[in-house]
Amino acid sequence: MTISEVSEKYEISQDTLRYYERIGAIPPVHRTKGGVRDYTEEDTGWIELVKCMRSAGLSVEALVQYVKLTQKGDTTLLERRELLNGQREQLIGQLEAIRRAKERLDYKISRYDEALKTGRLSWD
Fold first, then answer.
1. d(C-alpha 9, C-alpha 22), whole Å
2. Residue 81 CA to chain centroid, in angstroms?
3. Does the first or last residue of the chain, that is N or C, have fewer Cβ atoms within 10 Å of its Cβ?
């Protein structure tokens, strides 16, 4: 796939794709004999991972570290697992904060629903 096809498919700008490759957040992309990026299935798998991890809040620096560890081979399995587990723990914390915020909003909305029924806003 060309960079424009990948950009469109994954809704990531071409500049961002080049940036991710340049800093090592994704491994070097395969190229044609003419030097044009030719994204393989493996390359797009990395893009899917980066997109998922970024949306989950993983830093670019952590992604670069993850790629470096992956390129070192199976001797880094434990380190990679620990990196991902740390991110998982952060997500669990974020989910709890979101759950608490939702409960607070639900309560406030219920109070406004009651006020709309009774014509009186009360926080008792």
1. 20
2. 17
3. C
pLDDT at 56: 82
Percent of the chain with pLDDT over 70: 98
Q: Got the DSSP string for the chain?
A: --HHHHHHHHT--HHHHHHHHHHTSSPPPPB-TTS-B---HHHHHHHHHHHHHHHTT--HHHHHHHHHHHHH-GGGHHHHHHHHHHHHHHHHHHHHHHHHHHHHHHHHHHHHHHHHHHS-----
Cα-Cα end-to-end distance for the chain: 61
pLDDT reported for residue 123: 67
- What's the pLDDT at 117? 92
Closest CA relative to residue 71, chosen from 48, 34, 37, 42: 42
Which architecture characterizes domain 1-72 according to CATH? Answer: Orthogonal Bundle (1.10)
